[in-house]
């Protein structure tokens, strides 16, 4: 199976997971893969809202995609927390976060990275410091990894186990605690 196919399968599975999180059932699907995997936003400024890998296909899920640029990454043998700690020139996790935050800034949304390392069954959710602070009262009892990017202007990342994050953070919490950027 090629990397594009694996990425597409991963994105579809995340859409199904999030649809279930929102409504308690996988179908009907509420979210689906973005056309051209978010590349539509680079074609024209009028497509700026089409960033990320996940888009809403139902009014029931718009609250999530109106607030978040959701970027999905699956696999990547070379991605490692060790690289982050050693300041390697190539750090895929950092590159993923740069892409996620840049697209979020362009579309005036918050960044959300969904990442699964090759060989692991459970994805991680990466959110920004701003989101962590907004959701602190709900997240303070969860285990997480805090990635600080040194002297860069890159905002810190907080990584959570995906199922634990979404069993703690409900759709109503997102609707009530996270404002749509204006």
Quick recap:
The chain has 182 residues and is of the alpha+beta class. It is 40% helix and 19% strand.
Write the layout of secondary structure elements.
Elements: H1 3-23, E1 31-33, E2 54-56, H2 62-67, E3 68-75, H3 81-86, H4 92-106, E4 110-117, E5 124-128, H5 129-139, E6 145-147, E7 157-161, H6 162-168, H7 171-177
Parallel strand pairs: 3-4
Antiparallel strand pairs: 1-2, 4-5, 5-7, 6-7
The structure class reads alpha+beta
Radius of gyration equals 16 Å
Helix content: 40-55%
Compute the average pLDDT.
88
* Tally of discrete structural domains: 1
Ranges where pLDDT stays below 50 over 5 or more residues in a row are none
Protein name: YqaJ viral recombinase domain-containing protein
Pfam families: PDDEXK_15 (PF24608)
Organism: viral metagenome
């Amino acid at each position: 199976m090629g990397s594009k196919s694996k990425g597409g399968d991963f994105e579809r599975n995340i859409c199904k997971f999030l649809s279930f999180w929102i409504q308690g059932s996988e179908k009907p699907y509420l979210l689906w893969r973005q056309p051209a995997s978010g590349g539509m936003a680079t074609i024209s400024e009028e497509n700026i809202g089409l960033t990320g890998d996940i888009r809403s296909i139902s009014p029931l899920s718009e609250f999530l995609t109106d607030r978040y640029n959701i970027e999905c990454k699956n696999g990547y043998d070379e991605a490692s927390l060790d690289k982050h700690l050693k300041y390697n020139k190539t750090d895929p996790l950092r590159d993923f976060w740069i892409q996620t935050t840049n697209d979020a800034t362009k579309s005036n949304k918050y960044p959300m990275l969904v990442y699964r390392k090759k060989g692991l069954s459970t994805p991680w959710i990466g959110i920004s410091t701003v989101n962590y602070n907004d959701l602190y009262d709900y997240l303070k009892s969860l285990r997480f990894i805090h990635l600080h990017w040194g002297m860069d202007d890159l905002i810190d990342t907080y990584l959570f186990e995906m199922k634990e994050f979404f069993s703690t953070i409900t759709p109503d919490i997102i609707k009530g605690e996270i404002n749509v950027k204006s």
